[in-house]
């Protein structure tokens, strides 16, 4: 296992050897990933311990809330760096399974962004032309499922005798690494599994920074989506990782830009602080609805008074069969984003109670059966190598905000 790879001292590859993987798992690339792990491992461990302590408090009856110690950030005068014009318009983003034909169709879809999400045990060779692709949820953890997205990707559909290739204009690529809590079991650093998101970020960045260096100062990225954060201390680690990578690559400060997915309940009370920590590398926040629902359940799993109603809803935009909901979802109109659509004082009346209110709705046995059935089917698809049960890319509405 792993024999044949040329690795730095202290690095162990547990996956099988493959010549294609070896072109990604080069000694220099692994050295960069190893340096990130060694430099930030203690900060990551501390952040994960803080998560555990917070979870114990919630299980004991406590509620998430605003941190009094960071009130100066919420009330202070500061702004994030301006959004690069190339990604200013993100009204339509697309995310879907990372299959060769699906990637090409997604990049050619006319969407502004395609989201690539990087998953456990996957090695990514992604030289982006522009988009966010879902490796995190839509691919099972098998190295064989990974392919290159380098701007020359093609697909020959033999059944239809049709060749798929990229258009001249494609969506912008946003890469979504794993969350801080996930490990890369196939790459060990000093005897410990590497932090998954550092593998995802490190390998992608190392193999592509030359292209980024060629366009530095022009706002062409690289661009990232950062998932699953629960506290601004985790955003601070990401900011330090970005600074470290920019210095290594010799690219301009602030070239790396990231949108943070607000998809955990604790993060709702840390949004100002998260933007503050990433202010030189931020391009806003985006709410992840499905994961947010899961986080609400997880946070209040010991609170019997906070049982959620049935969750039979669709995540896509436009909204079918509901004109009012569709109009509300598309209220941006011709505006490219929402960064300057509201002022801080407009949200001053929002309280912690508002952010913790229980959704209204019925709780039925059919809803319980559906949740159970979907959970089993999801795991079965993952374990058999199919991944998330998506057959078409889904559209997601981009709700971008800044400090």
Automatic annotation (TrEMBL):
Query: Sorted alphabetically, which keywords does the UniProt record give?
Result: Glyoxylate bypass, Glyoxysome, Peroxisome, Transferase, Tricarboxylic acid cycle
Q: Does the keyword Transferase apply?
A: yes
- Malate synthase TIM barrel domain residues: 172-313
Pathway membership, UniProt:
Carbohydrate metabolism; glyoxylate cycle; (S)-malate from isocitrate: step 2/2
* Keyword field contains Ligase: no
Just give the chief location class: other
Tell me the domain of life: Eukaryota
Q: Which reaction does it catalyse?
A: glyoxylate + acetyl-CoA + H2O = (S)-malate + CoA + H(+)
Q: Name one GO cellular component term.
A: glyoxysome
Cite a single GO BP annotation: glyoxylate cycle
GO MF term (any one)? malate synthase activity
Residue stretches making up the Malate synthase N-terminal domain: 9-72
- State where the protein is found: Glyoxysome
Q: What is its EC number?
A: 2.3.3.9
Matching Gene3D superfamilies: Malate synthase, domain 3
The entry assigns this protein to a family as follows: Belongs to the malate synthase family.
The protein here is known as Malate synthase
